[in-house]
Write a structure and sequence with these properties.
Blueprint: H1 3-24, H2 31-53, H3 65-75, H4 80-87, H5 94-124, H6 141-154, H7 160-185, H8 191-196
Helix pairs in contact: 1-2, 1-3, 1-4, 2-5, 2-6, 5-6, 6-7
Length: 206
């Protein structure tokens, strides 16, 4: 099996997990729970479509069952937000719902547009640096998009725990992967100049 099989299956399972939580805690009248289901549930299915149409080569690697389950269970950490929303009957104010939806929408655009650009560019020019478009000022716009996506629906819980989960993923998974990519890109002509005029992960910050 490949890593993407465990990732994709978890993404699809998210919507069903949220529905189960809504049923267990009788949250059918909670707008925040429905918004969470719409955002995180839709993202899961969009991810699977992306995996089929323009897959990320890094997730195509083969893996054993044990490591695959580690990936699957690790992604389940994100489910703490819908559990909090449903178990504690958290109902965010309308303006807060709108803010989270907006953050999520910007994240979806940034993540999917940059992944599409990366896939197309690598197919056309596999040995050249990608430093235009979504990558002009940010070397990892796809990860920044994911940060916005997970922030968008994680903040709906109005609790610190989903933030901690996201920071764990950023610190222990995302940033090490970015640094490995940096070492590979350093071999390409023009990288030093590109690095001097761009940020690693977060626009204008880092």
């Amino acid at each position: 099996m490949r890593q993407k099989h465990f990732i994709d299956s978890n993404k699809v399972a998210t919507a069903f997990f949220v529905l189960i939580m809504m049923a267990i805690y009788n949250q059918w009248r909670n707008p925040t729970a429905w918004v969470y289901l719409a955002l995180h549930g839709t993202y899961g299915f969009l991810w699977v479509l992306k995996s089929r149409i323009f897959p990320d080569a890094s997730w195509e690697e083969k893996t054993g069952l044990a490591y695959g389950l580690v990936i699957w269970l690790g992604l389940c950490m994100y489910w703490v937000a819908p559990w909090l929303i449903t178990s504690k009957n958290i109902q965010a104010p309308a303006w807060y719902l709108a803010l989270c939806i907006s953050i999520y929408a910007f994240g979806v655009f940034t993540h999917f547009a940059s992944d599409m650009q990366k896939t197309t560019a690598l197919q056309l020019r596999p040995a050249e640096l990608i430093s235009t478009g979504m990558f002009a000022r940010l070397r990892n716009p796809n990860y920044f998009g994911e940060l916005l996506i997970y922030s968008g629906f994680g903040l709906l819980a109005m609790h610190w725990l989903p933030v901690v989960v996201l920071l764990i993923w950023v610190g222990f998974i995302w940033i090490p992967r970015m640094f490995r990519k940096e070492r590979a890109l350093a071999q390409l002509p023009g990288f030093d100049q590109y690095k001097a005029h761009s940020k690693l992960f977060i626009p204008f910050v880092f």
